[in-house]
Amino acid sequence: MTEAEGSPPSKPRPRPRLRRSAPEAQLDQADDGQVDGDLPYTPGSARGALSHRAFRSVWLGTLASNIGTWMQNIALGVFAYQLTHSATYVAAIGLAQLGPLFLLAMVGGLLADIVDRKKLLIGCQVEQLAFSLALAWASSRPHPSALLVFLCVLAIGIGNALNAPVLSAVLPVLVPKRDMPGAVSLQSVQLNLSRVIGPAIGGLLLPVVDAWGIFILNAGTYGFAIYVIARAAMPKVVVTGESGRPISGIQRLLGGLAVARADPLVRYCLVTIFSVSFFCLGFIGLMPVIAARDLHINPAGAVYGGLYALFGLGAALGAVSVGTIFVGVDRTFLIRLGLTGFALCLGAFGLIREIWFAYPIVLVVGYAYFVMVTSLSTAIQAHIADEVRGRVMALWIMGFGGTVPFGLMAGGAIASATSVSTVVVGGALAALLIGALAWLRAPAVEDRTAGAV
After folding, report:
1. pLDDT value of residue 346
2. Which of 95, 145, 412, 424 has its CA 20 to 30 A from that of 112?
3. Quick one: pLDDT band at residue 29, thresholds 50, 70, 90?
4. What is the pTM of this model?
């Protein structure tokens, strides 16, 4: 029996104020029927989200895909340097990976709201699988072409830029609204678990299978994601304007911006994530410089690997905490507390000169940062309507990932002119200011949805 054929809920439940399609309503009913017969769980928790089969399947499939992506990222950086011994080329490869995320996220968000989301997800996964295989072929040649490698990476980056908004839009609506906080928390956990697990596996396998072997393994993880997405039941969304008639053209493309301009909570969440990503996250890209200049360790050694892994572990723990131990805590308070804790710990990290003190500090930096990020993401996801979810989350992804390279470029210039500590401490001061504004002016998180545009 499929989820769409499940038994109706044993008791009525309030309906969210969304224009919902019949398949989506059936999916919610099936989920409720299934959960009512299971062991009790806390609504809104990570366990509650995982009790829904469609969410669980897609989450596991995309977790495998993200682990493969981070395996590939580790191998790609090493391969790019070995191929050219040029820092400029390595930076260009990084831009090919992340640049499309900033430039095309809005297009991906538009597509997420006007085409079948399952087909779009599968199409993006197929495109990335194909170009990962092409990258493996190009890198396995006796004399690899630097240009061909760059173009393959750029194509994979484009597929990821179109895929990220639709995945962000799909995962939370695979559960009833009461379990959305847990779903968003697990979405963040997925990103950070893959950031820890992927490099660890890639680092172990790289000497054995070479870079092109890692690229083939990554292609295999896309295949697994395609399989589970194809089998999952996903609700369909019909996009209409306020009059109930379909909308088109520029109004669709700018729908997310219109919601952000009109809704104080959406606007606050987006401005905060853009500001933190640009002003405060340069330390992540500059971590090798911090290791060499401030902590006096080898950036290519295992001690440095532990430093980066602890940041990722702290981030994963922070994300899962929002959907577990903090599930009943007011999200506005978590945003304020996370920003303040991140600012204070980041400042301490910028002043540390001993690696053994840096280890616990960077763990807490990652924890506080992702308590704040996951709380922001949960607030905006629970607030917006399905009809604009893809386009609003495209703006979120632009802020969360696409803005970071620009902040890194600015931070690199400042570090060259002064010191890397200036960048880290300056980011901490910026986070402290953003946190102070959150305590003074952050809008309360309400259980309603921003309307469609």
Report:
1. 96
2. 95
3. very low
4. 0.69
